[in-house]
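Sample intake — Acyl-CoA synthetase (NDP forming)
Collected from: Lentzea xinjiangensis
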Amino acid sequence: MNAAALLTDGSVVTVRELGAEDVPALLALHRGLPVEDQYLRFFSTSPRQLEDFVERMVSPDAPRHVVLGAFRGDRLLGAASYVVVRATDFAEVALVVSHAEQAHGVGTLLLEHLASLARSRGVRRFTAEVLTINGRMLRVFTDLGLVTSIVPDGEVIYVELVLEPGDHYLDAVGERESRADVASLTHVLRPGSIAVIGAGRSPASVGHGVLRNLVEGDFTGDLYAVNPHAKSVAGVDCYASVGELPEAPELAVLCVPAKVVPAVAEECGRRGVRALVVISSGVDAEELLKAVRAHGMRLVGPNCLGVSTSAPAVRMNATFAPGSTLAGGVGLVTQSGGVAIGVQEELRRLGLGLSSLVSTGDKLDISSNDLLMWWEHDQDTRIVALYLESFGNPRKFARIARRVAAAKPVLAIRAATSEAGRRAAASHTASTATPSVTRNALFRQAGVIAVDSVPELTDAVLALSRQPLPGGRSVAVLSNAGGLGVLAADACVRQGLHMAVLGEKTRKALERLVPATASVQNPVDTTAVVDEETFARCLDVIGADPAVDAVITVTVPTALGDPTGGVHDLDGKPVLAARTGQTELLHGQVPCYAEPARAAAALARLVERADWLARPREFARLGRIDLDAARAVVAKGRGWLPPDEVVSLLTAFGLPALGGTLATTAEHAVAAQQAYDAPVALKAMADDLLHKSRGGGVELGVSCPDAVARAVRGFQERFGDRLRGVFVQPMAPFGRELLVGVVTDEKFGPLVVTGLGGVDTDVLDDRAAALAPLSTADADDLLHGFRAAGHVLAGTDEEAVRQVLLRVAALAGALPEVAELDINPLVLTGTGCLVVDARVRVAPAEHPDPFLRRLRTT
């Protein structure tokens, strides 16, 4: 392995497996330890035969011994190693870090990478012996976040680490990554000095535009320009090269021809530049990233609009976008420069500014994941907005976004997602798992509010930035034009909102305020004759009704007056207005939309966020799982598993699988039926027969030996040499039928699908989907997320079905070799449920660690 990663201070190191060529560096590392550190490492102040010890660590003749090292340039900062205890899944672990680097997170980073590598190679636990006086090493182990047991024994403490990465561990890794990422992004979004390289004299050039924006935006730091053909540009002194600058700028913005970008990046790295923004497009990505990683820099772009921040201490607009950056509370990251300009212009028109803008372009390095971590800790950012055309690490994105969304709204414009290799839709589940279904599941579970256009985004931002969240989804509409009020009510229903039933007290109060011809039922029509004062009083009355969670007002000016001036905030309940024209703020606070449908959609986004915040976030603890038995099944299988192995796999995860007998002859099948002493189902096991009922491979209710033999002969005639056997099962009880399945995406991980089962699966496309792992709330969403859920689940044991969903998700998460799984049908009875038929496809799989701290290197 060879990975770049961030330390606590934001600096970049390389983590790689060490070999025989690294013996001199390892020796130098150990010999450079002070006496106290040598004693803590070796339990001796003068370790014997150090050369032999180090050579054994990296010897190819000791394959059970693995060593990782962390390098800054060519200097080895630390090493972590494990030795597998023979014939076990335990390994003894050790760590050594240069004394000067022990406060920068080198040891923790190495242990994270070592644990990830060990897990992928079948190691399940680390053990270590630590002196009781070595408190720093004990803290490193306990702070990792892994399940840890500590047993003191005199002067030595025995430590054992369970390598299975639970939530506590992933939270700890995420917190460390966030801290390091924020430190590194300070060079991008809070630089003390900037150099624009390729700042042209022509006002039409990109470099000139970037430099001019920095000057006119009154950047607070030191500003330099690099142009060998000019003395100054936009009033800024020019230098012929990066090497001639009076100091190493913290951030360099590259606006040079694509072919010279890697060379200029290399020059910046040698000069000590900490971060690059590459505006140029058409760049050799491999060479650029090579230079960036070699010198530990961070990179925005290439092919991007630039970056900006409105923080008063910085005031940086390093983009070529038109106009100034309006200060505000929205953090915006986008792959598209055009979308960035569009969102910024619309927010500016509404009086809503940006805290920071990052156009990631080709996102060779810095991505939306990095920016989410920055904005999580940025007090100036109150709302996060994203435009993503692709996901580099969607599973990490989901975890980070969920954490950020718990504190501040996160919105995303849905964009086209490319298919990373078309799956063979051999199962019902796989045919459901389109890119849009997967992406939407990711957004929904992570609390990301998804919209489909720039206007929808700014509409939602306007509502979220100015109004409180509603306590429910019951809406009242107040209008001075009855027809528009009806349109607003229709729009609310389309958005999944409910029209509130106004209480009698509310209706009587309204009757005293409005003409007799008015309607005091929801939607309330005041008629066109009321003035703004009366309209305001009507709004107060409706807002005081406990049945109302939010109010939408719809007003039009008439010859008799315009009640719009009476629209105002309510205490604790959102008010959104609609008025023909353009979207704006009324009285500086109430969002006003150009049409009722947009107001209803914006209110629905407020409700969506309130609902997500109210969701329980716990993950269920599942017992009765035999992970070793399950791993043994998938380890020996390839392709679609035979039915008896499917039953073994499901049973290992505590799933209620209906068993059976795999028979290879008619006589064997007859014996199986007689052993059950009941009617049986006979299922043909034939090559390329995936959908058995459709392919004539199922006989039900077979109850006597002669009928069994006839059915087997029928299968033999129908399938010939393709027939591999017959699976004999007792008939299942009658009940409603569900489909539960999994398909695994290379990047997104397992997608769990549920919906109508049995023959209805092929007739009706009625399914819900969610990404594993499933929280209890995610499982409930799946359970009730398809249209027929209410009918199917009525009178059944919902908890039993919920357990099936949670266990299927756990199976998929623990066994990446399970490429597809279809349970169809899952029969629901009044007292439980039963897996009657299931298919599992196993394929070779790597064990990538999506949560490992590392930067892109290729």
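Post-analysis note: The chain has six domains: 2-164, 186-304, 321-466, 467-614, 618-658+733-858, 660-731.
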